[in-house]
Amino acid sequence: GASSDKLRHVESMSELPSGAGKISGINAVVLGESLAAEENDLIFPSSDFSANALVSSPKQYREMYERSIKNPAGFWSEIAETFYWKEKWNPAEVCSENLDVTKGPVQINWFKGGKTNICYNAVDRNIESGNGDKIAMYWEGNEPSQDGKLTYSELLEKVCQLANYLKSLGVGKGDAVIIYLPMLLELPIAMLACARIGAVHSVVFAGFSADSLAQRIVDCKPKLVITCNAVKRGVKPIFLKDIVDVALVESEKNGVSVGLCLTYENQSAMKREDTKWQPERDVWWQDVVTKFPTKCDVEWVDAEDPLFLLYTSGSTGKPKGVLHTSGGYMVYTATTFKYAFDYKPTDIYWCTADCGWITGHSYVTYGPLLNGATVLVFEGTPNYPDSGRCWDIVDKYNVTIFYTAPTLVRSLMRDGTEYVTRYSRKSLRVLGSVGEPINPSAWRWFYNIVGDSRCPISDTWWQTETGGFMITPLPGAWPQKPGSATFPFFGVQPVIVDEKGQEIEGECSGYLCIKKSWPGAFRTLYGDHERYETTYFKPFAGYYFTGDGCSRDKDGYHWLTGRVDDVINVSGHRIGTAEVESALVSHPQCAEAAVVGVEHEVKGQGIYAFVTLVDGVPYSEELRKSLIMTVRNQIGAFAAPDKIHWAPGLPKTRSGKIMRRILRKIAARQLDELGDISTLAEPAVVDQLIALSDC
Ligand code: 6R9
């Protein structure tokens, strides 16, 4: 029964990883939101779950973890051996790295000299092992009546046809391809087709605007852009091809011309007759790709050859092209997927992330397929036709692993429990969370209501840069604490450092860094290795700096506390404050802008923008809307400010630096915590701003 389960685990708690202290008082009662209370709240997997798990006790975790740290080469080679390599890596050089900028250029290599192909391993290898008829992907469309599926053999045929078409265009090893598609099966198919021929895909989230798309096109100079004519999100159509048209004109102006736009006809959203067309440049996917052979030889690539570029936000206006390579990324995403979700071959796995983000790369496409899993791809939105859609889908496909973001949990929580309990959800076994810290009350709702207090939650902390999970529960191994991402994955050495870069031991808070590389680490920022070193390796010499704050509690559990740089996290989407600011100041009537993050009930963080107008321009509702529209047009709707705060002046130091600390407090209405404002050039602007808060 339940109480003996607890005893069993309490005994094994003394075997938690090093750094974990002894549990003083165990309290499984809901104690509210304070961290002190959460720290003592342990939630145990059932003994059944643990008994059948890949890692079933803290002891087993600790043994594997210790081995992965003491002998990373041995640990990772053994796993890498389970994949197909055309040529083996040099066994003396499984990993060679330098993370210390003071000792020379930062570089990370894994499985150097090995030749492989991630598409081969994710698709062909499963067919060769007899799973050709297994469903690789289910597809659920925007409308509940639309669906589809592909077996591994069918997936291979589709991938090969596109790969052959790309080859016929002269696209090959090292060439960039931009993919601007919604969640159709054609999106993972396009990624895999690029990987098969050694081309480097760069997926741009289909919620990005034409300007953002153009910026990425100019940076990576793709041979072609792959898109579709339109998609429907709920009742709203989005005309993606029109956005690409604008982006291509914009890129051309900036010296990069792309001669080909391969367009998938997404018939349920828009007919081809209605699509604007430039016959010399545009090609319908359905007209050409289907004519190509369904077999295509694999291009064997070096483990360190680039696999993809994915642009992400940093502290400056220019997005960073995070570059991942083939071998290490393959081994790492597959292994993290397997353990963090305690994957079983019978699982039906659904990750709600879009392939436009890293989660969709590592845990919709590569990680699951490398394990031969059945993956669900969902084109629609969680509240269409109503807020029960996710659970309707869970029951329709008997989803066993459901991986989503806290913002979705919070928004469904607000819509009411009846939407959940209307469905059975009995197939669910493991839940997952990603993108931002999950607050304990959302965690509990997810656990108690969605998972009927039966399914462990893997709260996976990681980043675009890390390629795969870094700090995550292994669901059968240890008790969870709502809101904690728990312990490091195999091979990962997180450390918490103070301002001076000194490691702090035991119970503490500080900056989260990683010591030593792991196979899934990014290798550079495309075209800007210097920015790679400056952003990630210079702040704390010898370490990879994550940009996140973190606390470690008395039991060694990790609690991520959010970004410590100028990046805000809106509904799990990373947005640089500088990007929003530069969009705002491009508005002819905006003189200056300062953007800060502010707590938001559903999105986690909302975007709060202070704007100064050009002399003589009056602030008006119309101007507010037009400022917001400017951001939507330049970045995308997801980056639209939640609040525009008209600021006749901004609080600046005498040297002219904007004091964001003060702006954050004003935005959060924490007016008694403004701190010292005497160093401001004009302290009076603070009162002025406060007075204008409700404009
Ligand atoms: C995978 C992904 C990375 C940033 C990261 C952190 C936040 C992601 C989290 C989390 C707390 C988690 N983050 N997962 N914070 N707990 N489980 O989201 O990548 O888009 O690059 O964002 O997201 O702040 O630094 P990416």
Automatic annotation (TrEMBL):
Fetch the Pfam families from UniProt.
ACAS_N (PF16177), AMP-binding (PF00501), AMP-binding_C (PF13193)
Give the superkingdom in one word: Eukaryota
Alphabetically, which GO biological process terms does the record hold? Answer: acetyl-CoA biosynthetic process; acetyl-CoA biosynthetic process from acetate; phenylpropanoid metabolic process
Alphabetized UniProt keyword annotations: ATP-binding, Ligase, Magnesium, Nucleotide-binding
- According to the entry, every stretch annotated as the AMP-dependent synthetase/ligase domain falls at 130-517
- Where is there biased composition of kind Basic and acidic residues? 3-12
Acetyl-coenzyme A synthetase N-terminal domain: residues covered: 61-122
Domain (AMP-binding enzyme C-terminal): give its ranges. 579-657
**EC number, as in UniProt:** 6.2.1.1
Q: Which Gene3D superfamilies match?
A: 3.30.300.30, N-terminal domain of ligase-like (3.40.50.12780)
Family label: Belongs to the ATP-dependent AMP-binding enzyme family.
Kindly provide the name given to this protein in its UniProt entry.
Acetyl-coenzyme A synthetase
Species: Sorghum bicolor
Lineage here is: Eukaryota, Viridiplantae, Streptophyta, Embryophyta, Tracheophyta
